[in-house]
Every structure is written in C-alpha cells, then in structure tokens.
Known about the structure:
mainly alpha, Serine Threonine Protein Phosphatase 5, Tetratricopeptide repeat, two-stranded parallel ribbon, 19 helices, 1% strand, globular
Amino acid sequence: MSETNHAIEAVWRIESARLIATLTRMVGDVGLAEELAQDALVAALEQWPESGVPRNAGAWLTATAKRRAIDTWRRQERLGRKYTELAHGLETQETSAGDPQGAAEDPIGDDLLSLVFIACHPVLPEEGRVALTLRLVGGLSTEEIARAFLVPVATVAQRIVRAKRTLAEAHVPFEVPQRDEFPERLGSVLEVVYLVFNEGYSATAGGDWMRPALADEALRLGRILAALVPTEPEVHGLVALMEIQASRMGARTSASGEPVLLLDQDRSHWDRLMITRGLAALSRAETSGRTLGPYSLQAAIAACHARAARAEDTDWERIAALYDALAQIAPSPVVELNRAVALSMAYGPQTGLEIVDALVSEGALASYHLLPSVRADLLVRLGRTAEAREEFERAASLTRNERERALLLGRAAALGGERIG
C-alpha cells in the first residue's frame, strides 16, 4: 500500500464517523449518508494520490459527499420536489470560493451524539441498535462487531441492513430526543458508547494495540451525556469507568510500542488528572442514593486499581466482591471470566481455574481468545507450564490483533519447550 493510501486510511478512521453524522443531519437518512461518505472515500482514493492529501481532509470529504448528493438528486428529479429543495439548500451552504478544503465547516458539536440517538431509536431491536451504532460511530467492520459479540458475521451484516431500512421507512428525524424520551434509549446509548470506548482501549483486530481516537470520542460523548442527564447515576458510572481506564493508556505500551499488561505497568505514567475526574464521577454515582448499576460497579473495580500505588497493593478481595455483585445484576460469561481472575488473585489460582474450566465446558466463549489466555495465566501460577504454553498458543490463534498475538506467542515461548502447531 502506498504512503498516500496509508494516509487516506488514517484520515478515514478518524473522520468517517463525524462525516456520516454530518451527512445524516443534512440528508436525513442514515443509509444514504453512509453511501455518500463511501463515494467521497472513493473520490479521495482516486484523486489524492496525484493531488496530495488536503490540509483539511475532513472538510474535503464532506464537501465532496455533499456535491455527490446534489448531483444524485438532480439526476433523480422524478423523486420529486423535496429532493430538489434539499439539493438547493445544500448548494447554498457551499462557501463562496467553492474550495472543498474550506467548505463544509458545519459545526459537528452534537452531530455524532445525535447519530448515536438515532441508531438507538426504540423502533429498532436492541441488537440492531448496537450493531448499527458500532458500524457508524465506532467505524468497526462487521467482522469486528461479530467478534465483539461472539456471533456470525452474516448475522451482524443482516442486523445492520435491517436497521438502516427500518430507520428510513420510519422516517426517524435527525435529532436528540426530548428528555422524556431519554429513558427508553439511554441504556442502548450507554452500551454503544461503552463498546466504542472498549474498541479504542483494546482493538479487536489489526496492527494497533489501541485506537486512542475512538476512546477519546467515546469519552467526549460520555461527558456530553453526563451534562444532559446529570441525575442518572449510570451515566456518571460510565464516565468514571472510561476516565479511569483511559488514564492507563500512556502506560499500556513500551517505548517500542509493545503491549504492557496491567500488573506490569509503570503507574507513575498513569494520568492522575483523569483518575481524579474518574473518581469524582464515581462519587456522584455512589452518592445518588440508587443501587449501583453495571457501569458504576465496573468503575468501582477500576478505582481499586487506580488507588493502588503498586500492583501488590491492589485490594483484590474488594474487587472479587464487586465482581460478585456485578455477576448478580449483569451475568455473562465474560463477567464470570473476569470474576475468576479476581478470585484467583484474592484466594489462589485453583479457585479461579475451577470457574474457568466450567466456562470451557459450557462452550459460550469457545472463540474468545481471553479464555485460554486467562487459563494459561492460572496454569503458570500452578506450575503447569506445558499446559500453559498450549493455552497461550491457542489464545494467539484466536486473536486478530497482531500486537496481542505477538505478546501471547512471546509468553508461550518464555515457558520453553517446542512450539506447538
């Protein structure tokens, strides 16, 4: 791939969500907005290798997509006066100079959040809301979304197509709903913001260990939500969780870019300001007078790590208790796997291994690379190194993140013996 194509790929990863959000506000159709954005990407791939990447690449893409919309509507006059009027309205928004680099400087302040609310409209089934939002806002591929939910790729693709069609047929407006409509959408909105953050914090595939731009965007959206609904404790819980998790990002890689696991991180590199903000948000959730929800409980777990000056100072018994509570209100195989880790740290590796082996038997996490990775860690602590090496290699075969694969293979190699497979 040429240097210019690498640059275009980087621009697209950064700008695509905002571009689609801006276009959706303009044309009022999520599906059409995504098509126009893809047209603009094709134009960039055709033109930028010769002309170079524009100084304001996002504005160039937006202006190009707008012009494609105008051309399309003019060719489809049979669709009626509405499209003609929309085309005229868009045309008048062009800058007087007609320079695509200076055009389309529309404020995007809440466009992305509005797109999240549209994708989380109650007219859609929950799985459709999440898949569509991760595709549009998170920029995740259908393969990445499928891996996140441990479902077939075709299933995710169908959910996204159906969601777009449903929104178009229902004529869902591009707007943040009224406050009395928040409760029926807020749960889904929080879930997708959380999932976008997770993809930024720990990329499911590719050559990057993290995707910081995604984590930053999720944090921005979370802070806006906290201002919109200040009395909702789970919003503050989610913000707390993201702030505290994001505080570690500077310590999650070595100087050479290699991943550094939590217990091995130099905690002096953690961002203390973000931790302070996260603990303040957690306090707001905890003092709300309401039972802590899943995001607040996860934030409380993250806070245990943040408050420990050294890894060995971590209050694992409290973390295990918090995971017990989380398993009661939001049970899932992944929560159970994390609970196993906490119990193993608090009460010994055999305790955790029993839970992990039960998860292996159940099969729900058969394709989830962290299951054999956790099992390998526990086996190492029990002195069963040959089995541990096999599990690390199995985990490496399941992950699609290149950095993580190298880390897992390195841990397997460190245990000695011949390479399996």
